Amino acid sequence: MAFVKDMLRMWAHSWKRFISIAMITLLGVAVLTGIYAGCRDAFRSTDRFFDAQGLHDVQVLSTAGLSNGDIAALRKVNGVAKVQAERSQEVTFDLDGRKSATMQEIGTNGIDQPYLQEGRMPKKAGEIAVTRKFIRDSGKHIGSRLTVTPESASSDTSDTSDTNGADGTNETNGTDEAPSFPTKLTIVGVVLDPQNLSNPDGYSAMTSFRSTATTDYTFFAPSDGVTGTLCTSATLLVKGAAAESTFDESYENTVKQVTDRIDGTVKTDRQKARRQELLDAGNRKIADARAEADKKFADAQSQIDANRQQFNQQVDQIVSMQAGAAAAGAAANGANAGAAAAAGATTPQLDETTRETMRETIIAASPELTQAKQQLDQAQSQLNEQKASTEQTLKTKENELKTSIPQVRWYVQDRQSLGGFSALKSDLDSIQSLGNAFPIVFLLVAVMMSLTAMARMVEEDRSLIGTYVGLGYGRLAVASRYLLFALLACLIGGGLGLIAGFLGIPAFLLVVLQGMYVMPGLQLEYDWLYGSLGIALFVVGVLAATIYACVQEMRQTPAALMRPKAPRAGSRILLERIRPVWNRIGFLGKVTARNIFRFKSRLIMTVGGVAGCTALIVCGLAINDTVADLGIKQYRDIYRYDLMVVSDDSDASAMRTKVASDGRVTSSLDVRIESGDLTVAGSGDGDSGKAGSSGSESIQLVAVPKKHLSDLGEMVTLQPVSSGILGTSGVGKTGSLKLDDDGVIVAQSAASALGVKAGSKVRLTNGDGVQATAKVSAVNRNLIGSDVYVSETYYAKLFDSKDAKNTKNSKSSEDSEALTWNAMLAKLSGSDTSQTDYAESLEEDSSVMKAVSCAHMADSFKFDLMGAVVALIVALAGGLALVVLFTLANTNVSERVREMATLKVLGFFDREVHHYVNREMMILTVMGVILGLPLGRLVGGMLTMALNMPSLYFEVEVKPLSYVIAAVATMAFALLVQLFVNPVLDRIDPISSLKSVE
After folding, report:
1. How far apart are CA 703 and CA 744, in angstroms?
2. What are phi and psi of 212, to 5 degrees?
3. Hey, how many other C-beta atoms are within 10 angstroms of the C-beta on 346?
4. Nearest 5°: CA angle at 157, between 842 and 795?
5. Rama region for 63: left / alpha / beta (φ>0; ψ in -120 to 50; rest)
6. Of the candidates 389, 528, 550, 396, the residue with the CA atom closest to the CA atom of residue 461
7. What is the spatial distance between Cα 597 and Cα 349, in angstroms, rounded to a whole number?
8. What average pLDDT does range 484-489 have in this prediction?
9. CA 20 to 30 Å from 178, out of 138, 596, 611, 870?
């Protein structure tokens, strides 16, 4: 019992060490569990919301719309649970200028159901539900009315009728019509689109570099009042996908099996069938037109023939009359009147030549008959010309039909293609990566501080330890006094850390997240396994340090332990050997130098602890600086053009004419831009980047005309890069990189994520879905987006080659034509504001699909969530620095109580004693800061390299101000600790402190 009482008394006497260990554990466990818990809570609540609203696992789009046959084919795919045919229509309306919206039919199969926030769901024709963003921008409310105008439908879906008889699924009318929605609308509800969780009322909506929306708003309408049988897309739910977390790799693998099956057979077959349907429909139109024309021509010919017959009868009648009169006159001049009467009674017979001669004479003699004959001949001539022209036109249409109807393309997309989903996932993944890395530094610092504190605690009790061992207590029993002390401190600190980690930090992160995204049903959850492992990790580290300290002392005999520890033998320090410097140092300065460098363990612990805390602060600020400069570097330095304009292939010429006519462009470069994929398959031979590396990245494939390859460097800064170990890259000289016909230039953001380097072989997929193996000639500096530059010649070699044509999704040989330059990179005159306004005005033009202003992108690029997490990390690192400095300062004082008492006996005033002790701590702190600044840069580089976010490369940037802030903050913490240490120095009693231990 006395042993236990003495142990409790010892614990109470060492309350400062207890608080230090508990605080370090609290901070470490909070960091370890807090960021993880916040991200996990967001992941889980969002996953539940997606499952409740039936967010699609797979979406299928087609350039020619989807027929009932396509929907039926998708239902037959193994692994598909549900298929929902989607009908939508783009409309425009006047809201402070022309605005666009997508009229979306609310599905009846439970997929992609909007979440009701206010009002009710629409049920009748003309009723719609809108998003809160529209309510905010328009100022309208529930009950407001709105009139919209349908945009001109795509020629692929509205101008061509087709028959779906291939599968026998659409036998009602034989044709498909594009969807059409009511135009006079009434708002009855406000909903949240599960495909876009952006918070329009928060401080930060979706950052501009991720925005993929093609219209400004989405209106949700019921099926009532919607006409048209052609579907704009099909959404699918995959069997077993709802049981997996949508953010886990297991979910992606489950969905990928189904998308691979669709890509494998269904996609190819239905693309061919759909195009054949369009060809058949076109041929039927031509055949119907020919039949109708033949009927009209036949009717016209019959009319002309009837008129000509009537004309000929009139002329023949005149001919007969004239022939009869001539015969009567000849008879009158004859021998008798009887012969004359007989001759008058009979019409003379004329041969055909004579008759035709008389006809022509009669017609020529009569202006009326001449005019009538000319009209008949002219009508016949015109009819013959129309026949020939119509037949030629129909034959031309028959010949042009195959080329006028493009290859039908399917796009099979998963949730990653949704801008809102991928943005949320990438944000949370990046934060979780930081949450996995920072606790390691906290754990190392905790172990170092625990070792320092417990070693000093054990050393102070060495005589008592020797007494207990001499009395027969086992070494384990004696060591348990310190092990239980450390364990209790860890458990209390860890318990408080769990409260902060599963309640405080997640609540802060979720407040920030809710400023960016709307996540209904968000709730905080406790993870017993992860929380227990978090505490266990710090318990093991601290107890290991305690065991080491106990073993170091208890391996001596009891007699040796009961005697005072012999003072450290005097020795010279290195500075003493530098006589010119040493001789100019004052007495107290020499004492300070000896105290700092003679006690190596205290030097290492203090400098290491301060350096670790300073490094954490620098690391956090480095990440903040890096993110803050991403937009400026990309859109001001790397992209040298001011405007990128993209159009549909059919509108490319009109787009270039429009931009040229505006007179704003000072120089431009026509290119072709396609959305594709870059894939690296793990091979281990080094040809595909890293050995065994694998992965895929969505890219923007930019093809450059062969005559203008040298002009690319005027629009984009081409700089070769190589990976660096500190988060930086070896950047080559500007202009030293050239695009040629031997390979592609890959953006650094994609190359870093996939481990691609110059000389690697990658698999490229172009906008038509054609795959080809390409050589990477160089990696170009690029921070945002994943651009892949390819020359026109190499593009043709890749995607028009024999290997490419043999792929299941490749173009047919008749479609292997010259590239259509559907995009333009341009430099503009005028200010940044005018350039932004011009880009916005271009998007209102019907020939422009997308217009992007680099000035606007540079100014609007934000990453608010990362900034909030960096602020949290810096605050926690500052707290750790304060605890570390407090622990080291108190340990330093407890080790030197007799020395401080001696100074007081020698006549040192309290202020002089303060200065004597604090000067050493300040020097050690400065040394730690000097070491911690570059260490923070190193750790920051490693962390940013580990992020590997989609389409982002973090080129580490640490501004001088960040170094100053980190150094000043650490020194301020050191000065604050002095305020707590000085009273301890004042309370040292020289008499009791200098008593002999014996």
Report:
1. 10
2. -120, 5
3. 9
4. 65
5. alpha
6. 550
7. 149
8. 92
9. 138
